[in-house]
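Weekly sync, protein design subgroup
Attendees: M.S., D.O., the rotation student, P.L. (late)

Item 1: inverse folding check
M.S. brought a backbone from last month's batch and wanted to see whether the design step gives back something sensible before we order anything. D.O. pointed out we never logged the input encoding, so this time it goes straight into the notes. Structure tokens as presented (96 positions):
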């Protein structure tokens, strides 16, 4: 999953961040899986507590990519589900 426009305070400085987050779920189809993992991220207590966005400028979460796995047990034991943040650039910093 890909999060964008998250206003966060990191190391005493407030800035906009995006993130990538691996999430594993079992679902009947892609649409159901996307709804389940999107809901899981939106309801993540830690992420909600650290997000400082106003309602006028909300963050976004979207599906970056997906893989269908035959065995979810393997994913749970061998693949990480960490969230990796990155600082978002201003629109005029596209060359950096």
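Designed sequence read out in the meeting:
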């Amino acid at each position: 999953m890909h999060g964008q426009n998250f206003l966060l305070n990191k190391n005493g400085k407030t800035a906009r961040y995006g993130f990538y987050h691996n999430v594993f779920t079992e679902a009947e189809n892609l649409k159901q899986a996307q709804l389940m993992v999107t809901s899981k991220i939106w309801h993540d207590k830690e992420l909600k507590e650290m997000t400082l966005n106003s309602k006028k400028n909300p963050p976004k979460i979207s599906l970056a990519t997906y893989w269908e796995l035959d065995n979810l047990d393997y994913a749970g034991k061998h693949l990480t589900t960490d969230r990796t943040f990155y600082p978002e650039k201003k629109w005029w910093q596209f060359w950096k």
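Discussion: Helices lie at 30-42, 45-50, 72-78. The beta strands are 2-10, 13-21, 60-62, 83-87.
Action: P.L. to compare against the previous round before Friday.
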